[in-house]
Design brief:
Largest sheet: 5 strands, mixed
Order of helices and strands: EEEHEEHEHHEH
Number of helices: 5
Number of strands: 7
Strand content: 15-25%
Helix content: 40-55%
CATH class: Alpha Beta
CATH superfamily: STAS domain
Structural class: alpha/beta
CATH topology: Transcription Regulator spoIIAA
Number of domains: 1
Length: 119
């Protein structure tokens, strides 16, 4: 019996994989591990992954989730891929600024802007 316990909604816009979170709060370790594993599988399936992570449903994000995002970013870059983040809540974005992660990630206000930024 295979049931999809995915915490992500995954769609495709051309050659870009668009990922949305199903959970509003990404806080507990088990959920973060599952999300990270799902994203890593997506990266492994592509030679040069183009991924867009949409945060439009997310209200809270733990520091462990930020660590997972850094890992995902590193894996995408190792495969000469591209990662974009979009629709980040202003309070969550403030954490990206404080931790200087806004310099590490390509962050866009809208999905359209992020999609247009892919080469």
């Amino acid at each position: 019996m295979t049931t999809s316990d995915s915490r992500l909604s995954i769609t495709h816009e051309g050659d870009v994989t668009v990922i949305e979170f199903l959970d509003r709060n990404i806080l507990d370790e088990a959920s973060i591990q599952q999300i990270g594993d799902e994203m890593l599988r997506l990266i492994e399936q592509s030679e040069a992954p183009k991924m867009l992570i949409n945060f439009n449903n997310v209200d809270h994000l733990s520091s462990a989730a930020l660590g997972t995002l850094i890992t995902i970013n590193n894996k995408v870059r190792q495969k000469d891929g591209q990662l974009r983040l979009t629709d980040i809540d202003p309070q969550i974005y403030e954490v990206f600024v404080i931790t200087k992660l806004n310099k590490l990630f390509h962050i866009h206000k809208t999905v359209a802007d992020a999609l247009a930024s892919f080469k």
